[in-house]
Amino acid sequence: MDFTYSAEDLAFRDELRTWLAANLPAGWGETVFEPEDEDENAMFRLDWERKLHKGGWNGIAWPQKYGGRGASLVEQAIFAEEMARARAPEGLNIIGRNLVATTLLHHGSEEQRQRYLPKIISGEEVWCQGFSEPNAGSDLASVRCRAIREGDHFVVNGQKIWTSFAQYAQWCILLARTDSTLPKHQGISFLLVDMSTPGVSIRPLRQISGESEFNETFFDNVKVPVANLVGDLNGGWKIAMTTLTYERGPEDALGRQIRFKQELDTLIDTAATLKRGASPAIDDPTVRQKLAKAVVEVEIMRLNCLRAFSKALKGKPRGPEASMNKLYWSHVTQNMYEAALETLGPLAPLDGGDPLSPADGRFQLSFLRSKAFTIYSGSSEIQRNIIAERLLGMPK
Length: 396
Prior knowledge:
Layout (H helix, E strand, L loop, with lengths): L6 H17 L14 H17 L18 H13 L8 H14 L2 H12 L5 E4 L15 E5 L2 E8 L10 E7 L10 E7 L5 E5 L10 E11 L3 E2 L5 H10 L4 H24 L1 E2 L2 E2 L4 H29 L7 H24 L17 H9 L9 H12 L5
Parallel strand pairs: 1-4
Antiparallel strand pairs: 2-3, 3-7, 4-5, 5-8, 6-7, 9-10
Helix pairs in contact: 1-3, 3-7, 4-5, 4-6, 7-8, 7-9, 8-9, 9-10, 9-11
């Protein structure tokens, strides 16, 4: 793979760096940070996304016709990397921008694109994802939420779970069973649901980290216009696979790897200054070995991302290799945060509110958040099945 950027790519990178330097708050990452209150943080992230839109940096991969830049895959990777290097906030409307928009561009009608895309890219409407259910998470084709057509609308009844940011969303992409007589993969449809419709209720789920990013969402005789059906009736499974494919793109994975590398660098700096007796923690051979292992694993993550990215640049379709990358980084980062708490030793239980907490408690919170990595976006068990069956050719 040629790692040399073209003159156009370098100009794109420099333009973005200049914009970030001018638009991130003064002292960002040093004296100024994201709000700690969950609701304030969500609005902060949404305001940042709207600022990106005004600067022409939101939805850069979209066609220009719909407000994007038509950015190349290399430019998308540069964008993800530079945002990560600047430690810029991640926008709140990730599902709308990355998943809903991509799905509508592939499968939506022109009327749907004209209606929804402008308000996604501007940050005016936030989206959530109604896929998983209590008994249909990893086995997504087993969804039981029903949508029965009555005249010019569907009536939806059922429950969804792990609905990220539902409490802030105006719209939801919903997988619902529209024909129970067909095989389970064939009787599902893909709907766009207005979250303000009567019968929609949301219950936040308190996570181990203390946050409520996820929610339970209930649908009680919710009326959804037939015009909000994406693609064909009972054709939702194919559409959902498009959505999930873009959940794990190589261009975004490169940015994620940089953010993990930044965390690892902070951990190494912390280990070099944290005392264990008379010596820094990093002088402990066990600590050094664990940190060295983390360095190697994060570098392998970068190389895996580049391999997938190189394949995409050659025009090859996004395939099951994404499962290998997702499986790998989920466990690597869990291991890294476990090593972090072991490095902190007896100070590990102290959270960010304690003046004695190393690195202001960031590793404790990240450790708790990391427990979800092997579950969301496809559990590790499912990723292993995909790798075994579709990459290795093993029987089901």
